[in-house]
């Protein structure tokens, strides 16, 4: 049973949980449209400022693709189940080298064991609060691509380790290597399509500049900020109002750090299958019932980072 059912009626949850294929199409068109628009911005006015702005906008929309894949993992992106799986896999996950089925298994464990020792996401939040110097080093590693390259190396090493553990069993070894090759090939196929489209639109190096560079830099930074905002420097408890945070975001923060209602994270944990667009309505219902003071909230991402870097040096 999801904790939100103790505070919201079944009829209200049913109304908030309605899926929409039209909304799914609109969100994907918006996300990919912003990516195309950022590239077009540089193409029309090529200079260092528009280049940096394009990289930041694309990295933020790569986070947007991760968020829409998260929606698909909860079967909330489209009403049509087959469309939800296909779009979540090929239009959201594979372009950023993510695997929807594997993510779904992992992520549902996070919901079940939030902020406990069995939470697979605990490593992403347990080191906060940290010092300001440590936070600065983490963000610098993200922006310089060191985090992105390290994560890719870890993923490769993980699959190689699985293959090594299976080497005494040829059938299991074939399964492990076959799975890894399939996942790698699917990600490479999606990226090959992006490479071809960017080359056709401008030049081959646009793929490096406007897809791979944002994926290794700005995407890593905003992904870290998102993880900190959701579960960093909150209570280690099973209280659904204290072990997760909702962050209020202005239009600039929604553009660069919190696309597609990802900031309403406490509400998402209360009823995880509600489409993200309806989470503000769930928040309003909870506040109207006097639950606002119980919620862990922040007044913006600046406040989140200050809380997460509040440990004395």
UniProtKB/TrEMBL annotation:
GO BP: any one term:
lipid biosynthetic process
Q: What Gene Ontology terms describe where this protein resides (cellular component)?
A: membrane
Chain ranges passing through the membrane: 21-45, 51-73, 188-207
Species whose genome carries this gene: Oceanicola granulosus (strain ATCC BAA-861 / DSM 15982 / KCTC 12143 / HTCC2516)
Q: Which residues form the Fatty acid desaturase domain?
A: 48-286
Keywords attached to this Swiss-Prot or TrEMBL record, sorted alphabetically, are:
Membrane, Transmembrane, Transmembrane helix
Task: Specify the superkingdom.
Answer: Bacteria
The record's annotation in PANTHER family points to: DELTA(5) FATTY ACID DESATURASE C-RELATED, FATTY ACID DESATURASE 2
Claim: Transmembrane helix is one of the keywords in the record: yes
Pfam families xrefs = FA_desaturase (PF00487)
Protein name, entry field? Fatty acid desaturase family protein
Q: Name one GO molecular function term.
A: oxidoreductase activity, acting on paired donors, with oxidation of a pair of donors resulting in the reduction of molecular oxygen to two molecules of water
Q: Is Membrane one of the keywords?
A: yes
């Amino acid at each position: 049973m999801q904790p939100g059912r103790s505070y919201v009626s079944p009829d209200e949850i049913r109304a908030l949980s309605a899926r929409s294929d039209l909304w799914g199409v609109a969100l994907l068109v918006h996300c990919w449209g912003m990516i195309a628009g950022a590239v077009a911005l540089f193409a029309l006015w090529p200079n260092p400022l528009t280049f940096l702005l394009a990289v930041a906008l694309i990295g933020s929309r790569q986070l947007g693709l991760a968020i829409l894949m998260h929606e698909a993992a909860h079967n909330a992106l489209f009403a049509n189940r087959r469309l939800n799986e296909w779009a979540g896999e090929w239009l959201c996950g594979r372009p950023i080298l993510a695997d929807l089925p594997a993510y779904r298994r992992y992520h549902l464990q996070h919901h079940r064991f939030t902020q406990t020792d069995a939470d697979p996401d605990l490593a992403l939040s347990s080191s906060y609060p940290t010092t300001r110097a440590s936070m600065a080093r983490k963000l610098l590693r993200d922006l310089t691509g060191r985090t992105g390259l390290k994560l890719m190396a870890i993923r490769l090493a993980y699959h190689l380790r699985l293959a090594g553990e299976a080497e005494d069993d040829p059938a299991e070894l074939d399964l492990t290597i076959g799975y890894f090759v399939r996942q790698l090939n699917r990600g490479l196929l999606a990226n090959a399509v992006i490479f071809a489209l960017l080359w056709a639109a401008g030049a081959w190096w646009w793929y490096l500049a406007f897809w791979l560079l944002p994926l290794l830099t700005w995407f890593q930074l905003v992904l870290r900020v998102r993880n900190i905002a959701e579960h960093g420097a909150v209570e280690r408890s099973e209280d659904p109002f204290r072990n997760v945070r909702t962050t209020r975001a202005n239009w600039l923060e929604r553009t660069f750090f919190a696309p597609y209602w990802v900031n309403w994270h406490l509400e998402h944990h209360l009823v995880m299958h509600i489409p993200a667009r309806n989470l503000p309505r769930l928040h309003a219902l909870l506040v109207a019932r006097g639950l606002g003071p119980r919620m862990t909230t922040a007044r913006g991402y600046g406040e989140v980072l200050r809380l997460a870097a509040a440990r004395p040096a």
